[in-house]
Design brief:
Blueprint lengths: L1 H13 L2 E4 L9 E5 L6 H8 L2 H4 L2 E6 H4 L3 H10 L3 E3 L11 H9 L3 E4 L17 H8 L4 E8 L1 H4 L13 E4 L11 H16 L2
Parallel strand pairs: 1-7, 2-5, 2-6, 3-4, 3-5
Antiparallel strand pairs: 6-7
Helix pairs in contact: 1-2
Length: 200
C-alpha cells in the first residue's frame, strides 16, 4: 500500500509520463540503466513502471546514504526493496556487484545509474564498468536504456524542496553484450543508447 502511494505521489508531483519507445512494459528480467541528475531519479523511474513490474524491480542505492537515518533505511528496505551497495570503502568482501548479481539470479530486475554520481551539468557522464560486469555475469537479462527528462530541474543538486515540473521517462530498445565486444566499446554503446533517447 505504501509503495503504491509513493509511486502515485511521484507520478502526480512530476507529471511523469512513461514513454516506451523501444520495448514494451513486460515482466522480463531486465536491468534498467539511466542518466543520473537528481536524488529523485530512481524513485521516478521505479514509479513509472507498471505495478506488477515494479514489485519485481529493485533500485541500486548507496548504503551510506540510505542507512543514514531510520526513515531512509526503512524506505530503502521495506518500500523500495533497494539493493544497498558500498560505494566508499569497497573491498572484496563487500563488492557491490555481488548483491546485484544475486538479485538478478533470484529473478528481480534492477535499476542502475552507470555514471555513478549525479551530473549537475545535465550532461551524461562516462559509464563505469559495473553495467558491463552485469551484462557478462547475467547475459539473459535485457539491458534497457532509459532517459529521464527534466528531473534535474525538479530537485537540483543541493536543493531540498522540489519544484513541480513535467517530466518524461523514455524507455529504449534493449541491448546486450555482443560476442567478442570489449568493455570500452560496450560502455560507449550503452551510453550512446541513453543519449539517443534524449533526441526523441
Amino acid at each position: 500500500m505504501i509503495a503504491r502511494l509513493i509511486a502515485f505521489a511521484a507520478r502526480l508531483f512530476t507529471g511523469a509520463i512513461p514513454r516506451w519507445r523501444g520495448c514494451a512494459p513486460e515482466p522480463r528480467l531486465r536491468v534498467y540503466f539511466a542518466n543520473h541528475s537528481s536524488n529523485l531519479d530512481f524513485v521516478l523511474l521505479w514509479a513509472s513502471l507498471p505495478g506488477e513490474i515494479r514489485e519485481r524491480t529493485r533500485p541500486i542505492a548507496a548504503h551510506d546514504y540510505w542507512t543514514g537515518s531510520k526513515l531512509r533505511h526503512w524506505l530503502a528496505s521495506s518500500v523500495f526493496r533497494a539493493v544497498l551497495i558500498e560505494r566508499k570503502n569497497v573491498t572484496r568482501e563487500n563488492n557491490p556487484l555481488t548483491p546485484m548479481v544475486a538479485a538478478l539470479r533470484e529473478g528481480d530486475s534492477l535499476i542502475i545509474f552507470p555514471e555513478g554520481g549525479r551530473q549537475a551539468s545535465g550532461e551524461i557522464g562516462d559509464f563505469k564498468p559495473g553495467i558491463h560486469h552485469l551484462a557478462r555475469e547475467v547475459p539473459e537479462a535485457e539491458l534497457v536504456p532509459v532517459f529521464i527528462q527534466n528531473l534535474s530541474r525538479v530537485l537540483p543538486k543541493g536543493e531540498v524542496l522540489p519544484v513541480p515540473i513535467l517530466c518524461s521517462v523514455y524507455f529504449g530498445a534493449p541491448i546486450r553484450l555482443e560476442p567478442g565486444e570489449n568493455k570500452r566499446d560496450f560502455l560507449v554503446r550503452a551510453r550512446d543508447a541513453v543519449l539517443a533517447l534524449r533526441e526523441t
